[in-house]
Amino acid sequence: MRTRPLKVALLGCGVVGSEVARIMTTHAADLAARIGAPIELAGVAVRRPSKVREGIPAELVTTDATALVKRGDIDVVVEVIGGIEPARSLITTAFEHGASVVSANKALLAQDGAALHAAAGEHGRDLYYEAAVAGAIPLIRPLRESLAGDKVNRVLGIVNGTTNFILDKMDTTGAGYQEALDEATALGYAEADPTADVEGFDAAAKAAILAGIAFHTRVRLDDVYREGMTEVTAADFASAKNMGCTIKLLAICERAADGASVTARVHPAMIPLTHPLASVRGAYNAVFVESDAAGQLMFYGPGAGGAPTASAVLGDLVAVCRNRLNGATGPGESAYAALTVSPMGDVVTRYHISLDVADKPGVLAQVATVFAEHGVSIDTVRQKGKDGEASLVVVTHRASDASLSGTVEALRKLDTVRGVASIMRVEGE
Ligand code: HSE
Predict the structure, then answer these.
(1) pTM for this structure?
(2) Distances from the Cα of 279 to the Cαs of 172, 259, 282, 290, 408, in angstroms?
(3) 308 pocket-lining for ligand 1 (C-beta < 6 Å)
(4) What pLDDT was estimated at residue 51?
(5) What is the predicted pLDDT for the residue at 54?
């Protein structure tokens, strides 16, 4: 085994970074044996140097992250600060100065993955980011490497723990959104500003990364259709139960039936209780992958948290260190397929629509006509009337999102339709 250590610079020492440093120290002998050389923490860039960080020698701590990545003797930079800048500049500078990079930065990878991969390739270095999607769950490596010989057709995932916790609470207790969010905040699952989670931004970034890798096509955050879950109500859960379903915030990356285009989207959806994703409870994440040869695969585990995310970072660190010792690099960006990324209107799925309507002769026929005029075929209709008003629940066969939007727009114009109470896509059937 080589005795000269590989040098690691850690950018960020928060919840994840401190766990990375701890595991590097406590598992040092095992990591050295697995890599074939010891690894040494050579510097830790932080914002608040005065904070006491157990197990990290004070002389390693610096506030000058740029100087750290420019040192020239750093083999691997581990970036766990998040956000676009300064992370992007630091990573680029790290490549320019000969380091490989392990990052947990989903927002940056979703926005600038192509440019970062190009920079890594230009300098013959690695860019690994298993921790950017679904915390500890091995997903990037299985998609990039284990399934490299297969053809992935669909990735359907619960990739945000905060929202899964909230939806699970609503499902199991009948609580409304705000009540469940308050509990998630009190228990530390939701951040003080939960926007990134509940509005689906976090999941959309992960969807972009997953779709890009799964379909060998560049998919950016802007390509991902996004709807948050703040409008999901207890009534939606009651409707879902009536259909033998629950509601999850799903990231869905799909190859179109003709194989020539793909879509990526994040939105709440009903899924049958029999689908494996329906049993993913609390803050857990899970990703269901469908491919030609392997069939259906499911990856499950903790999608956030210091130690779980550090586990994914450490796995990448070992891989990148091994590559360096071998004078090699691992897989870079694979975007050769360059498939068209289609807009949401092209997505084909089923819909559950709740309408408040007048309860009088001809209304059902009028509503059905609107669906027919837009080419949307009805699967089931349920009506419950009271005092001249009725609630009408329509479940459709598969139709394009554009056709469904046109249908809803036309329904809203009918005098007899008092309101569209909810529209929910039905997935996983
Ligand atoms: N906020 C994310 C979640 C974890 O709730 O799953 C980090 O991506």
Answers:
(1) 0.96
(2) 12, 30, 10, 18, 31
(3) no
(4) 86
(5) 86
